Every structure is written in structure tokens, then in C-alpha cells.
């Protein structure tokens, strides 16, 4: 029995690793189960079977209302945001060939956070009404993330970009962005400040279909680009020389990947806040499950990131009920120790 | 830059004079401009006027607090950079500030602490825990302590503490109101009595650091060299680490986590006087004080009529230097 299935068309071909395929199917199942549980648990417990019935449209009216109007959009946003962040982290770790990098460590999510807080404080009047539609918030967050990504790359450039310089510059910019974010929060009214704090920690509280509709296109839009770039991401892993040898323009490719990475992280942060450590940890867990070929790594990362945030959100609204703890507190609480473990292992 | 002990000593005296001038400027400049004459009269012929009250209750305290905190952070930065042989070591990058911040917000939220004494002790505790964790993490595993590992470990500790701090603030809006300004780092509204509680510990730490500066020279050559020169490196490292914790923890307790002074100042000092820590330590102290008080003056003008926290200004000034240091490529090994 061969290890791979081969899928070949005119302009592209894929090797599909059987073991990876199996683990991805298993992860998909796990994600579905996590989402079903998360939809069912809350102030009013709904059994998984009833949840399924409600999703099919054949459940009790009251279940139907709670699930489709309140819980489903929240769980979907959690999943997509988590998936986006983990994907973004997997790509970033591929581009800069450093397993310790992630969009939140190097300030990309910090840039999104700063732009969003600036948006909240600068465009609200004295009575706390926003002067611009909240729909523009993601645009700002994305703009902030992009700007910071450019800045890190440009500042780290010195006859090329070494991973360590990239990370250190990112850490420095992150500190600056935190200071600027605090400044913005101080300028605005305290109500906005507390709103911004919740949001900076990362939460999917109070999301509705509006957010799902705004977030989903970003995510889906990136997928075909990723499918096309997967192989080149694999080749980039071998170093700049080999990538050039394979006939790929390193800089154009890296730029494109960085943009995809920024779009994913920026949109996730825009709708679910700056959820820490998902972009760092998701890909690492995925690598253990599916190996390091990006064809399997990317979907596995996305699924694990999604599961992480769905579970963190579930923990946040049940463990300390009636208090709502932002999901980001849990992703950080799980992510930081895991990172520490990686630090020991990766020497 | 400065050669010869006489020139370096003269430089120190010039530095002290600049520090004095900056402190005077800090007393007279701001939203309410006052004059030097009024500042003197506020103490010799107090008449209860607005200007006199502002000078006595606000300007003079913050000028003194700024100087004390700047000196402490400057010295803490030198000690950390020498101790870890890491040019970007500093209390903020290593998560010491974030740790102290987390412990204080925890105290405000769950233990109901409110006095500066309590802030100080719990700040020390937080600084010690964070520094210990970052150091343990950075040096554990194969290969021992390397600058990059330590930096990453510190950055993660900082991220962890920051997330947890935000989590607590989310659940407690009142605490947010109280600690938001403090979290950004500020010397505004600090009373002399607050300084008086922390100052004795800080001053003792300044002098012990000066005494340690000879050993820092040996240690900077490498731990093996220091041992062969007869240094008890374990005792020395513990003493230096304790000083870092007192200086950084005390600073955070009184002024909040002020970033970048600890990184940037030692580089300035080294640029001026070379690699002898007997000079670097006092120079860092004075430069740190001058820089923080200057940043505090600047903070009064950024978002006039409101005041920005001084931590924001130090971050604005410090980031370009930080990037410059990283770009110089000290991490190429």
C-alpha cells in the first residue's frame, strides 16, 4: 500500500498523505463535537441530540430560537477566529522559519488591536455613540495589522531578514503598540476603555450573525490562495537559496504570504479581539498530529485553532458563571505553559 | 567618548547639574506655568495660592518621584544587562514590570489593597516571581542561558501576565478606573509620602549596586573568568538579582510599569564611558533620572490639556533605540 494518494491536473498536483488525511478527518469530527457541546451548554442546557434537531430545523421552537439566534453565531465566530489565527501562525512560522513566532508575539495582532481601540475612541462622541458604523472596525484592524507587518519587515531588513531580528523587532514594536493603545484608552471615555479592554483580551461575547457574515468572507477568501501557495510554503522551509533554485521569487512569495497571514490575523482580531497564544500554539499541536508538510499542517492548524477558541469560550462562560470571563484569558492560560514547554523542548 | 577618570568625574558633575536643572524645569513647566520665584516662595513664603499649592502638592513630588524612579530603572537595566550578558535585558522586556503589574491588579481586585505600602510589597513580590520565572525558563534546558532564549521567555511571561491582568480588569470595572492610568506608567499625582515609603529601599539598593560594580566588570568577562578571579558568582548573582527586584519592583509600585528606560539608558552610558561598570552604574543612574523627568515634562504637552502617562512617552522615545540596538546585530551568534 502506498503512503500517498496522488491528485494530478494540468497545472497542479498534490500528494495526499494517508495518515494526515485520517488525522484531519478525526480533527474535523472533534471540532464538530466541540461545537455541538458548546452550543448546547449555557444558562439553559440543551442535549446534543436536541441541538442537532434544532440545527436541522425540526427542534422545539424555544431551542431553535436560542440556538440559531444566540449560540450558533457565537460558536461560529469563535471557531473561524481561532482557525484564522492558527493558520496565520502556521504561515508565519513557515515564512520566517522560526517555530516560536506568532502574529501576537511580533505585534501584528497588536497593530490590529491598536487600530481598533483608536477607532473606538476617536470616532465616538460624548454620549458614547459611534460616529462611524461598527462595520468599519475590521477594516481599521486589518489596516493596523498590515501597517505593522510592513513596518516589522522593513525594520528587520538588513541584507535580508533573519528570523531573530524579525522577532526582536516585533517584540519591541509590540511594547510600543501597547503603550499607544493605553494612550488611546485614556483619551477616550472610561466606558470605551472597559469595552476596549474586554476586546483586547479576546472575546466572542455578544456576537451575532452580522459578525459571522462579515468574518466569513475573509476566511473563505484566503483559502484558495492558501491552496495555491501550500507547495511553495513547503519549499520556503528549505531556505532562500533552494527556493530561488526552485524558480520561485523569494521576496514576492514571502510578501504574498505575509499579506495572507496579516489578513487572517487582522480579520480574526477585528471580530474576536486579540486572542493570545492561539497563533503560536495551534500550529505546534497540529505539527505533532499531521507532520510538518504544509498540505496537512494548514488544515490541521485551522481545526485545532478553532477547537481551542470554541473550548476557551465555553470555559469562559461556564466556569465562573454568572461572570463572563473573556475567552482570551483561557487561551493565554493554556497557551503560556505550553509555550514554556516548547521552549524547553526546542533547544 | 569620555577618556580619563578626571573627565569622567567631571562628566558626572555636569550630569548632576543637568539633572538639577531638569528637575527645576519639571517644577515650573506644565499646564499651569509657574516661575522659579514662585517655586521658591512656595516653601519660604507660602500664601495658599493655586500656584503654590500646585508646586507643593504636585510638581515637586512628581519631579522627585520621576528622578528616583529614573535612577532606579537605569541601574536595574545595567545590572540585568550585565548579569544576563543580554543587550536588550530590562525589567519591561523580561516581564518583571508585567509581573508586578499583575500582582498589584490582583491585589486591588481580590484582596482590596489600596495603600502605597501594600502596592509596594505586592509589587516586589510580583517582580520577584516574574524575574525568577523568566530567568529559570531562559536558563533551563539544553544550552543553558542564552540571550535570545531569555528574551523570548521574558516576552512570554510578559504576554501571560498582561493577558491575566486584562482578564481581571474585564471583570472589575472599578479597578479598571483606578489602575488604568497606573498601568501605563505615570508619576502624576504621586505624593511625597508615597515616595518616602519606597525611597529608603531604593537608596540602599543604589549604593549596594555601586558597590557591586567592580564585580560586574569581572562577571561581564564571562562566568568562568569571574570564578577564576576568585568571585563567588552565586552570591554575587543573588545579590545583583535582589537589587534588580528591589529597584524594578519599587519603581513599578510607585510609578507603574515604565518601559524602555531600563534598556536604553545603559547603552547611552556605555557609549559615554566605555565598559567599566564603576562608571556605567553612576552614569546610568543620572541619565535614567534625567530621561524620565524629561519624558514626564513631555507627557504634559502631548495631549494637552490632558496628561499622557510618562510610560507612553518613554515607549515612544525608546522604541527607535531598541530597534537600533537590535539592528546593530548583537544577536548574530
From TrEMBL, chain A:
SUPFAM superfamilies per the UniProt record, alphabetical: ABC transporter involved in vitamin B12 uptake, BtuC
InterPro entries registered for this protein in UniProt: ABC_BtuC-like, ABC_transptr_permease_BtuC
Entry membrane topology: Multi-pass membrane protein
Transmembrane segments: 21-46, 75-96, 105-124, 136-155, 167-191, 215-234, 255-282, 294-315, 327-344
Keyword Glycosyltransferase among record annotations: no
Matches recorded under CDD domains: TM_ABC_iron-siderophores_like
Gene Ontology annotations for the cellular component aspect, listed alphabetically: plasma membrane
Alphabetical UniProt keywords: Cell membrane, Membrane, Transmembrane, Transmembrane helix, Transport
The keyword Metal-binding is assigned to this record: no
Subcellular location: Cell membrane
One GO biological process term: siderophore-iron import into cell
GO MF terms, alphabetically ordered: transmembrane transporter activity
Family membership noted in the UniProt record: Belongs to the binding-protein-dependent transport system permease family. FecCD subfamily.
PANTHER family: FERRIC ENTEROBACTIN TRANSPORT SYSTEM PERMEASE PROTEIN, FERRIC ENTEROBACTIN TRANSPORT SYSTEM PERMEASE PROTEIN FEPG
Record's protein name: Iron ABC transporter permease
Amino acid at each position: 500500500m502506498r503512503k500517498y494518494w496522488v491528485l494530478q491536473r494540468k497545472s497542479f498536483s498534490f500528494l495526499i498523505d494517508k495518515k494526515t488525511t485520517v488525522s484531519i478527518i478525526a480533527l474535523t469530527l472533534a471540532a464538530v463535537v466541540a461545537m455541538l457541546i458548546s452550543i448546547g451548554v449555557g444558562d439553559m442546557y440543551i442535549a446534543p441530540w436536541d441541538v442537532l434537531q434544532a440545527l436541522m430545523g425540526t427542534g422545539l421552537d424555544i431551542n431553535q430560537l436560542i440556538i440559531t439566534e444566540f449560540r450558533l453565531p457565537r460558536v461560529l465566530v469563535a471557531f473561524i477566529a481561532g482557525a484564522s489565527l492558527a493558520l496565520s501562525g502556521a504561515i508565519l512560522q513557515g515564512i520566517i522559519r522560526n517555530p516560536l513566532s506568532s502574529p501576537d508575539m511580533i505585534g501584528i495582532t497588536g497593530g490590529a488591536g491598536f487600530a481598533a481601540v483608536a477607532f473606538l475612541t476617536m470616532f465616538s462622541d460624548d454620549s458614547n455613540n459611534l460616529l462611524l458604523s461598527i462595520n468599519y472596525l475590521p477594516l481599521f484592524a486589518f489596516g493596523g495589522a498590515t501597517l505593522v507587518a510592513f513596518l516589522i519587515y522593513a525594520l528587520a531588513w538588513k541584507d535580508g531578514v533573519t528570523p531573530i531580528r524579525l522577532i526582536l523587532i516585533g517584540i519591541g514594536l509590540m511594547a510600543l503598540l501597547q503603550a499607544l493603545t493605553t494612550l488611546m484608552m485614556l483619551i477616550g471615555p472610561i466606558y470605551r476603555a472597559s469595552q476596549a479592554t474586554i476586546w483586547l483580551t479576546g472575546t466572542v461575547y455578544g456576537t451575532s450573525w452580522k459578525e459571522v457574515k462579515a468574518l466569513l468572507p475573509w476566511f473563505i477568501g484566503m483559502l484558495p490562495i492558501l491552496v495555491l501557495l501550500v507547495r511553495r510554503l513547503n519549499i520556503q522551509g528549505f531556505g532562500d537559496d533552494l527556493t530561488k533554485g526552485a524558480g520561485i521569487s523569494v521576496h514576492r512569495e514571502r510578501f504574498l504570504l505575509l499579506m495572507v497571514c496579516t489578513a487572517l490575523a487582522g480579520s480574526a482580531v477585528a471580530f474576536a479581539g486579540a486572542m493570545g497564544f492561539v497563533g503560536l500554539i495551534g500550529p505546534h499541536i497540529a505539527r505533532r498530529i499531521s507532520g510538518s508538510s504544509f498540505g496537512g499542517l494548514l488544515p490541521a492548524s485551522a481545526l485545532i485553532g478553532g477547537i481551542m477558541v470554541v473550548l476557551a469560550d465555553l470555559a469562559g462562560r461556564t466556569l465562573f458563571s454568572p461572570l463572563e470571563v473573556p475567552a482570551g484569558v483561557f487561551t493565554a492560560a493554556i497557551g503560556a505553559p505550553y509555550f514554556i514547554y516548547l521552549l524547553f523542548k526546542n533547544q | 567618548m569620555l577618556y580619563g577618570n578626571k573627565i569622567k568625574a567631571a562628566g558626572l558633575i555636569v550630569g548632576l547639574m543637568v539633572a538639577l536643572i531638569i528637575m527645576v524645569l519639571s517644577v515650573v513647566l506644565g499646564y499651569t506655568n509657574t516661575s522659579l520665584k514662585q517655586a521658591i516662595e512656595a516653601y519660604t513664603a507660602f500664601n495658599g495660592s493655586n500656584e503654590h499649592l500646585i508646586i507643593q502638592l504636585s510638581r515637586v513630588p512628581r519631579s522627585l518621584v520621576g528622578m528616583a524612579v529614573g535612577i532606579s530603572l537605569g541601574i536595574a537595566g545595567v545590572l540585568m544587562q550585565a548579569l544576563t550578558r543580554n543587550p536588550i535585558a530590562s525589567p519591561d522586556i523580561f516581564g518583571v514590570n508585567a509581573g508586578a503589574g499583575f500582582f498589584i491588579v490582583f491585589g486591588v481586585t481580590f484582596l482590596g489593597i489600596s495603600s502605597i505600602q501594600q502596592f509596594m510589597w505586592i509589587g516586589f513580590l510580583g517582580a520577584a516571581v516574574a524575574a525568577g520565572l523568566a530567568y529559570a525558563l531562559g536558563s533551563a534546558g539544553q544550552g543553558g542561558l542564552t540571550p535570545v532564549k531569555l528574551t523570548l521567555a521574558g516576552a512570554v511571561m510578559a504576554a501571560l501576565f498582561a493577558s491575566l491582568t486584562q482578564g481581571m480588569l474585564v471583570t472589575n470595572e472599578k479597578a479598571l478606573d483606578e489602575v488604568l492610568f497606573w498601568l501605563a506608567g505615570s508619576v502624576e499625582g504621586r505624593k511625597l509620602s508615597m515616595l518616602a515609603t519606597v525611597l529608603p529601599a531604593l537608596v540602599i539598593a543604589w549604593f549596594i549596586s555601586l558597590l557591586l560594580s567592580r564585580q560586574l566588570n569581572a562577571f561581564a568577562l564571562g562566568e568562568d573568568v569571574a570564578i577564576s578571579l576568585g568571585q563567588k558568582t552565586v552570591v554575587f548573582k543573588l545579590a545583583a538579582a535582589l537589587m534588580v527586584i528591589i529597584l524594578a519592583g519599587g519603581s513599578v509600585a510607585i510609578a507603574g510599569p515604565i518601559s524602555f528606560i531600563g534598556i536604553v539608558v545603559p547603552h547611552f552610558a556605555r557609549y559615554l564611558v566605555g565598559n567599566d561598570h564603576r562608571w556605567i552604574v553612576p552614569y546610568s543612574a543620572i541619565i535614567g533620572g534625567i530621561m524620565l523627568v524629561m519624558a514626564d515634562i513631555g507627557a504634559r504637552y502631548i495631549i494637552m490639556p490632558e496628561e499622557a502617562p510618562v510610560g507612553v512617552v518613554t515607549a515612544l522615545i525608546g522604541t527607535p533605540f531598541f530597534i537600533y540596538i537590535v539592528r546593530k546585530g548583537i544577536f548574530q551568534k
